[in-house]
TrEMBL record, chain A:
Keywords: ATP-binding, Cell membrane, Membrane, Nucleotide-binding, Repeat, Sugar transport, Translocase, Transport. It is a peripheral membrane protein. GO terms for cellular component: plasma membrane. Gene3D superfamilies: P-loop containing nucleotide triphosphate hydrolases. It is found in: Cell membrane. This is ABC transporter domain-containing protein. The keyword Magnesium does not apply. The keyword Transmembrane does not apply. Belongs to the ABC transporter superfamily. Its main location: membrane.
From TrEMBL, chain B:
The chain crosses the membrane at residues 7-28, 34-55, 62-79, 85-102, 109-132, 160-185, 216-234, 240-258, 270-289, 295-315. Keywords: Cell membrane, Membrane, Transferase, Transmembrane, Transmembrane helix. It comes from Devosia soli. InterPro entries: ABC_transp_permease. It holds the Pfam family BPD_transp_2. This is Dolichyl-phosphate beta-glucosyltransferase. It is found in: Cell membrane. The keyword Transferase applies. The keyword Membrane applies. GO terms for molecular function: transferase activity; transmembrane transporter activity. GO terms for cellular component: plasma membrane.
């Protein structure tokens, strides 16, 4: 059913930033009525290509045609007029405005008497947009800032679906969504396909892409390596195409079983948003935390990290009482944290790599805790970076110039630089490409081999199953059950998150 | 474009120097005039150095001018009451430190925006200076001669073209303060942490930096520097009145902003602030010698800041 006239055709697309090519003759052809995956590692040129289509970046050369007619996309307005809609990884929303106002951002509000805003109609239309995604728990009149990240993403998606368009471009739309929310989104995407419009879908989650998309275009180093139907290709071959080499496993094998000693324990631990929760973690163990977004995962981690005031309960670290009054005290005790949002919470973007890594360890990475020793810091950072296959010009390069995966490696380098006993990870591989993901999992394995305990909060179910020894399910602000990860299926995990029972409680 | 952004201010500075040297060949490019400029700018130098400390964190302090006035008044009153100079100076510096700590507490512990908190303390310190002084200038015999003589003294540097020149004491203090702030910001973990806070407050907090404590300390240091600047001013004019420091705040912020146009990511750096202060000082000195009206001078200085900072932000824009 090859269509003679593609919906979108972009060929010979080149773009260089300051002489460094980001795209060197890439091409992308999307037929009407298909969900087309755009694949590639971070830095392969996906973002640049999307920005060119969105009219944000001007290409050096490009032949772009929509429905066979050549076009130039000189502005975001032009892209909009051409029927292209974009949902970005870093969604731009105004938290102090209502959901409805955000949905209508950049569009004309419905009017009354041609000058007054018709708020009733505005809210009604926003509700309709939300209904389309089957969202009934968000009130259009709510302030967007009151919503969780997943819900905010749903609002962005609803906004893009407000009017009919030819092509919807989605960059990591499920990164902040729960499994259930993702499923709902996929249903809508399939509806879009059925109506004859198309979706260009960017995601690092291969399983998702394999299940959802019809065709894929793989970019590597700014070139289109291959394009074809996904039905004809295996998961592993796709990965090999993206990174240009074969990988045997998505997850590095554990080198050792968890030991019998307890490294961390919480007894009736509670904080605002976390009901009394108890569990223990063995040395060398990776404990996953799964659950619908907003089930108390963040509160649990921040309570352990000393950032949220503990209202009741006790904790122990290496069988000694542990009650950190601040993140500073947590680091001091040997607890390290990789936060959810690396840009907002993890990194000082306009500072060098080495300064980011040593930021949490300046007491030891200085003379007498006071005098800076930048030479020593740089050597320390360079060694740590080499061990993680950090791709950078050198330890003095600013973090802002690195790709997402390499930025995340800097966050990890900071976390492990002090040989932590307990490693707290939130969404450690969000927006990270396959190659860097493997490296990050290897870092986790390396820490457990040294006897550290790891608590990993993730909405990426294959990741939880692939890397964890046990998985704790959180619901309504507490851990409801803990299961062994071995032999667990994704559907089992989804059922557990929704509180439907399976027989696998450990 | 990047070149212009980083070095535009320096190029402009050199152009100003060339201009004044051509217009005033006999009086401008002389060692005596330059030592004079260092003395004229020494108070601003000290206050701007303190301002740099809080601006590194992305905060700023509007109260430095009134803190300087208050410190001058406190010292002058104590000396008028027969207290020894060292005691008067120490108490005045302590007042500045405490005032700064109060700013820091409002900003970091209570969580008031620095703009609002220091706007409020600006009027408070100013009001206090009027209350304790009764609104009068304290001068004449109430001020010990030694206090005024300090500002007039200096270290002789020998003859220069037949004229005896010396490095003024006030300039020496300014140089020492710059040195201390340079060490603090560039060589210690304290400075590294402040820059991290300025770059990303949340990431700094989650990296175990005692954000609240450091903010409080930084504001205290700014208050201390403001008080030092106020004392230097009082010494130079051998008197104190409740408004004499009021011009310092805007000039200090202007100097730091001028400096930020010279740094890599537009962050404040102490040596860049020094250049900023000298630019303002040279302009003032040269324009005064050319007998340009002081109000015209204000217009020119304001325009210069807009041009320098504007060129910097235009250079950073990508579209």
């Amino acid at each position: 059913m090859a269509s003679p006239v593609p919906l979108l055709s972009a060929t010979s697309v080149t773009k260089a930033y300051a002489g460094i090519p980001a795209l060197s003759g890439a091409s992308l052809v999307v037929a009407p009525g298909e969900i087309h995956a755009l694949m590639g590692e971070n830095g392969a040129g996906k973002s640049t290509l999307i920005k060119i289509l969105a009219g944000v970046v001007a290409p050096d050369t490009a032949h772009i045609a929509i429905d066979g007619a050549p076009v130039t996309i000189e502005s975001t307005k032009a892209a909009y007029r051409l029927g292209l809609r974009f949902i970005h990884q870093e969604f731009n929303v105004v938290p102090t405005l209502s959901v409805a106002e955000n949905i209508f951002m950049g569009r004309r509000y419905p009017r009354r008497a041609s000058i007054l805003v018709d708020w009733v109609e505005l809210n009604r239309q926003a509700q309709r947009a939300l209904d389309r995604l089957g969202i009934d728990h968000i009130d259009p009149r709510q302030n967007l800032g009151e919503l969780g990240l997943g819900d905010q993403m749903l609002v962005r998606i609803s906004a893009a679906l407000l009017d009919d368009a030819k092509l919807y471009v989605m960059d990591e739309p499920t990164a902040a969504l729960t499994a259930d929310e993702s499923q709902r989104l996929f249903r809508v995407l399939r509806e879009i396909r059925a109506s004859g419009s198309s979706v260009l879908y960017v995601s690092h989650r291969l399983d998702e892409v394999m299940a959802l998309c019809d065709k894929a275009t793989v970019l590597r180093d700014g070139r289109s390596i291959d394009s074809g139907a996904l039905a004809n290709i295996t998961h592993d071959d796709l990965v090999a195409l993206m990174i240009g080499r074969k990988v045997e496993e998505a997850y590095p094998k554990a080198v050792a079983e968890p030991r019998d000693t307890t490294v961390f324990a919480a007894t009736n631990l509670a904080t605002l948003g976390l009901k009394p929760t108890s569990f223990s973690l063995r040395a060398g163990e990776v404990l996953g935390i799964a659950g619908l977004s907003g089930s108390g995962q963040g509160e649990l981690i921040r309570a352990i990290f000393g950032d949220f005031r503990v209202t009741s309960g006790t904790m122990s670290l290496d069988n000694a009482p542990y009650a950190p009054a601040s993140p500073a005290a947590a680091w001091q005790s040997g607890v390290a944290y990789v936060p959810r949002e690396r840009r907002a919470e993890g990194l000082v973007m306009r500072r060098p790599i080495y300064q980011n890594i040593t930021l949490a360890h300046l007491k030891r990475q200085s003379r007498a805790g006071t005098w800076l020793t930048p030479g020593r810091e740089k050597r320390f950072a360079a060694d740590l970076g080499a061990n993680m296959r950090l791709k950078a010009v050198g330890p003095a390069q600013d973090v802002i110039e690195l790709s997402g995966g390499n930025q995340q490696k800097v966050v990890f380098a900071k976390a492990v630089a002090g040989d932590p006993r307990l490693l707290l990870l939130e969404e450690p591989t969000r927006g990270v490409d396959v190659g860097a993901k493997f490296d990050i999992y290897s870092i986790i394995r390396e820490r457990t081999a040294k006897g550290a305990g790891v608590i990993l909060v993730s909405s990426d179910l294959p990741e939880l199953i692939g890397i964890c020894d046990r998985i704790a399910i959180m619901r309504d602000g507490t851990i409801t059950t803990i299961v062994d990860a071995a032999g667990l299926g994704e559907d089992d995990l989804v059922n557990l998150c929704y509180g439907r029972t399976t027989g696998m409680v450990a | 474009m990047v070149f212009i952004r980083r070095y535009g201010t320096l190029i402009g500075f050199v152009a100003i120097l060339v201009f004044f040297s051509v217009m005033l060949p006999a009086t401008f490019p002389t060692a005596r005039n330059w030592l004079n400029i260092t003395q004229q700018t020494s108070m601003l130098m000290v206050v701007a150095a303190g301002m740099t400390v809080v601006m590194v964190m992305g905060d700023f302090d509007l109260s430095v001018g009134s803190a300087a006035s208050l410190a001058g008044i406190v010292a002058a009153l104590m000396m008028a009451a027969g207290q020894p100079i060292w005691a008067a100076v120490s108490i005045a510096l302590a007042v500045g430190l405490l005032g700064g700590a109060f700013n820091g507490a409002m900003v970091s512990l209570v969580g008031i925006l620095p703009f609002i908190a220091t706007l409020a303390t600006m009027t408070m310190f100013s009001g206090l200076a009027f209350v304790v002084s009764g609104g009068k200038t304290i001068s004449g015999r109430a001020i010990p001669e030694d206090f005024g003589n300090f500002a007039r003294g200096g270290i002789p540097l020998g003859d220069w073209g037949g004229v005896a020149v010396s490095l003024p004491n006030l300039s020496i203090i300014a140089i020492l303060v710059i040195l201390v702030v340079w060490i603090l910001l560039e060589q210690t973990t304290f400075g590294r942490r402040l820059y991290a806070m300025g770059g990303n407050m949340e990431a700094a907090h989650l990296s175990g930096i005692a954000v609240k404590r450091l903010r409080l300390i930084a504001f205290s240091l700014t208050g201390l520097a403001a008080a030092a600047g106020g004392l230097m001013y009082a010494s130079r004019v051998a008197s104190a009145n409740p408004v004499q420091g009021s011009g310092l705040m805007l000039n200090a912020i202007a100097a730091v902003f001028l400096g930020t146009t010279m740094s890599r990511h537009g962050e404040p750096r102490i040596l860049a602030t020094v250049v900023g202060v000298i630019v303002l000082g040279v302009l003032d000195n040269g324009l005064t010698q050319l007998s340009v009206d002081s109000y015209i001078r204000q217009v020119l200085v304001g325009a210069l800041i807009l041009v320098a900072v504007g060129a910097g932000s235009l250079g950073q824009k990508r579209r």
